[in-house]
């Protein structure tokens, strides 16, 4: 649902006033000292190169909708993890609430994503680190120190990226060994107990070997307490993480090199803030059969909604850890042909859970653990000629993982004596479950582009993908462990054309087919009959766009798209479908999405620049097949705001000493949205506006800097998710609260 016109006007007025206030203040009190200063915007689109099509090219030349965030922009905006990226890209929304663990990231692009993290489900948006696909959403809210850039590809990426990129892909690119010769140390301290350090080294060992190494630590206090636990391990919303990465590039010969990389992280935190909101009708404490939780009343909830009311020790804390290793071999066969082989292994495990009733009563507790190991190998053969180039490859992926919950969880009729009113035993321990799945995925693809003339380029690609999944599950309602197997396959493709106008602007048009693999429902508490496969989802995307400089000082990226989805998989909770928090996944017959995306940089002067982004999305289900329950025509996908806005002004001042003073602000707006794909007023997530700033002093030689920063300066408290249950809605709240601090960075030449 979109805001009213008054809301739109209010939002735009805030943007206008913000820009005017910054402009007037700076122009009235500061004066630029140098007329030869470079343009203020170091993130000028004209200078950005991307690798979205697995080839290096200008952002303007790539015939697809891409947002590229540079290292400098992310540092100035205090982007420290993937969740923060979701504030600055049109039609991108990232929420983190899986199993109460803030290391989880639900990524939605153009209305496509996945709310759940259970091993039997797969995301609708792919996340890649240096070409390596990350199969799990849990742990994908990665810290982003010493990153070269983050590319967000919007729309189906079925040819070059394949499975589970129905909505798009996020490509994280690290700084490569040998790209620079520098060592640096960065320290951040701030309110809420913020402490962060980052050590980085990049340089040559000798003529043939280069290394890049980084180590990071960050922590922050929580926003609430576990008020009914004597010695809680963590505060609610607390964050603490160690991470590191080591990469080495070995130039074996002039045309053959090996890149080795290993990384790891260990995150221990507090559960995400969680509370409940009673709905009409609310549970009647005198009637054991009225709702799932007849003993739950509002007076049992903590007065502070950020506090946790559970009495289950350990449920207030979360943990996630993982590591990965990869080897990339690059061989330039000759001036035309090259090959690349990427092999990788990654492993992860997590602990989390929610107390669904948010009270001291042992009504619905879901402590949860999970793990996943994955292996992948990709062989590419690429060619570059005078007027055409191509990228081709073979890809294999294997993942094995599990999710478990216990020892006691769903007890809907819990009484002090663990008996129902008729004297029978309650359902204590009812909600345990154990899921396991192994996935094998194979793909072969080719993509090419051809220059018909100096101004006109056409291209396209083709990919065949096949997925095989073997899953087994045990739930209390199952007579025995259930075993399931399914195969999914699809041919995806894209065609595109790009033309450079006489004024230098680039226009493009493309048609893409995308694919998301099918799977099995994550929580079939209602019985083994619910543990059945849902089908794969396919899409056709029609898109046209404009890129380039529309004036000497104005760069523009614009895209208009229309996407049709067939059998869109929509997960939603159904508290009436059996005991426990039942999550059903249904394939909607047909759905559509249409929208507009605009990104612009404006160099107002040599010292003052603006970066802005606007996204509009209208997405709805248009047809529901027979016997599909829970979703209806006109419903919109979950966690999909209609409007997304970003506004980031920057002003630079040259001081008499030769040093530089920079003033930067950033504003992000996400419209209201539904917590699930089933329209329910109780699950509407309100809109949110986030405002931040950064005041930076950079020394004469540019070797050190000091920044004063502010994040979420208006202290906006917003919902990450809303999940309907009988008699109430469970609400996962943000821990992204107001923070002010100082950031110091020192670089050393090596």
Task: Explain what the structure shows.
By secondary structure, this protein is mainly beta. The protein has a single domain (5-749), classed as TonB-dependent receptor, beta-barrel domain (Maltoporin, Chain A), CATH 2.40.170. 5% of the residues lie in helices and 52% in strands. It contains three helices and 36 strands. The chain has helices at residues 5-29, 71-76, 82-85; strands spanning 49-50, 57-58, 65-70, 92-95, 106-109, 125-129, 132-134, 147-154, 168-174, 182-190, 194-204, 209-220, 239-253, 256-270, 274-278, 317-332, 337-355, 365-384, 388-405, 433-451, 456-474, 482-500, 506-516, 537-551, 554-573, 583-603, 608-623, 643-654, 660-670, 673-674, 684-685, 688-698, 704-711, 719-725, 728-733, 739-749. It has a 22-stranded antiparallel beta barrel. Strands 3-8-9-6-7 form a five-stranded mixed beta sheet. It has a three-stranded antiparallel beta sheet with strand order 15-35-34, with no helix packed on it. The termini are far apart. Residues 1-42, 287-291 and 412-428 have low confidence and may be disordered. Belongs to the TonB-dependent receptor family. It comes from Paraglaciecola polaris LMG 21857. It is found in: Cell outer membrane. One of its GO terms (biological process) is iron ion transport. Keywords: Cell outer membrane, Ion transport, Iron, Iron transport, Membrane, Receptor, Signal, TonB box, Transmembrane, Transmembrane beta strand, Transport.
């Amino acid at each position: 649902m979109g805001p009213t016109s008054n809301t739109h006007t209010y939002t735009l007025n805030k943007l206008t006033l913000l820009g005017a206030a910054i402009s007037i203040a700076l122009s009235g009190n500061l004066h630029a000292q140098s007329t030869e200063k470079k343009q203020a915007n170091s993130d000028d689109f004209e200078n950005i190169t991307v690798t979205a099509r697995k080839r290096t090219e200008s952002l303007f030349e790539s015939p697809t909708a891409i947002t590229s965030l540079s290292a400098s922009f992310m540092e100035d905006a205090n982007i420290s993890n993937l969740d923060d990226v979701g504030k600055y890209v049109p039609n991108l929304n990232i929420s983190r609430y899986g199993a109460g663990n803030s290391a989880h990231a639900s990524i939605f692009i153009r209305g496509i994503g996945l709310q759940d993290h259970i091993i039997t489900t797969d995301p609708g948006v792919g996340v890649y680190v240096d070409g390596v696909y990350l199969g799990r959403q849990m742990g994908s809210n990665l810290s982003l120190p010493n990153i070269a850039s983050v590319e967000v590809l919007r729309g189906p990426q079925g040819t070059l990226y394949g499975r589970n990129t129905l909505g798009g892909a996020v490509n994280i690119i690290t700084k490569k060994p040998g790209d620079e010769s520098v060592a640096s140390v960065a320290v951040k301290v701030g309110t809420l107990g913020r402490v962060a350090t980052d050590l980085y080294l990049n340089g040559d060992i000798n003529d043939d070997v280069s290394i890049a190494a980084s180590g990071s630590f960050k922590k922050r206090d929580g926003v609430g307490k576990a008020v009914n636990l004597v010695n809680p391990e963590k505060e609610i919303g607390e964050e603490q993480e160690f991470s590191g990465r080591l990469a080495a590039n070995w130039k074996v010969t002039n045309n053959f090199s090996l890149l080795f990389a290993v990384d790891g992280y260990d995150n221990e935190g507090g559960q995400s803030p969680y509370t409940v909101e009673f709905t009409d009708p609310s549970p009647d404490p005198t009637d054991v059969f009225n709702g799932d939780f007849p003993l739950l009343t509002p007076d049992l909830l903590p007065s502070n909604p950020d506090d946790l009311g559970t009495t289950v020790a350990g449920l207030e804390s979360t943990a996630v850890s993982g590591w990965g290793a990869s080897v990339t071999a690059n061989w330039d066969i000759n001036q035309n042909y090259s090959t690349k082989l990427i092999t990788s292994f990654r492993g992860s495990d997590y602990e989390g859970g929610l107390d669904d009733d948010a009270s001291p009563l042992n009504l619905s507790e879901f402590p949860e653990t999970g793990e996943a190991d994955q292996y992948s190998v990709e062989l590419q053969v690429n060619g570059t000629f005078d007027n055409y180039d191509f990228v081709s490859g073979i890809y294999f992926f294997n993942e094995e993982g599990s999710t478990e919950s216990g020892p006691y969880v769903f007890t809907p009729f819990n009484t002090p004596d663990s008996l129902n009113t008729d004297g029978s035993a309650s359902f204590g321990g009812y909600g345990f479950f154990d899921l396991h799945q192994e996935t094998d995925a194979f793909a072969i693809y080719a993509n090419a582009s051809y220059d018909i003339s100096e101004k006109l380029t056409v291209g396209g690609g083709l990919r065949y993908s096949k997925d095989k999944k073997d899953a087994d599950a045990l739930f209390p309602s199952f007579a025995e462990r259930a075993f399931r197997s399914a195969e999914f396959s699809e041919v995806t493709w894209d065609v595109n054309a790009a033309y450079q106008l006489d004024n230098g602007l680039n226009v493009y048009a493309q048609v893409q087919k995308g694919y998301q693999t099918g799977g099995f429902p994550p929580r079939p508490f209602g019985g083994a009959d619910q543990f059945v496969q849902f089908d794969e989802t396919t899409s056709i995307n029609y898109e046209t766009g404009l890129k380039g400089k529309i004036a000497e000082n104005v760069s523009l990226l614009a895209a208009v798209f229309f996407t049709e989805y067939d059998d869109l998989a929509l997960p939603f909770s159904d508290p009436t479908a059996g005991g426990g928090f039942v999550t059903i996944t249904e394939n909607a017959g047909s759905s559509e999405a249409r929208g507009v995306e605009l990104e612009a940089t404006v160099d107002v002067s040599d010292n003052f620049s603006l970066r802005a982004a606007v996204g509009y999305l209208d997405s709805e289900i248009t047809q529901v097949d027979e016997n599909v329950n829970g979703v209806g025509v006109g419903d919109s996908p979950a966690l999909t705001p209609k409007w997304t806005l970003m506004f980031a002004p920057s002003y630079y001042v040259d001081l008499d000493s030769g040093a530089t003073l920079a003033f930067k602000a950033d504003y992000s707006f996400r419209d209201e949205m539904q917590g699930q794909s089933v329209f329910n007023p109780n699950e509407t997530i309100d809109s949110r506006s986030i405002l931040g700033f950064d005041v930076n002093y950079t020394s004469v030689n540019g070797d050190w800097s000091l920044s004063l920063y502010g994040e979420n300066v208006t202290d906006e408290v917003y919902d990450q998710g809303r999940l309907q249950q009988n008699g109430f809605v469970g609400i996962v709240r943000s821990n992204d609260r107001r923070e002010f601090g100082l950031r110091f960075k020192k670089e050393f030449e090596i």
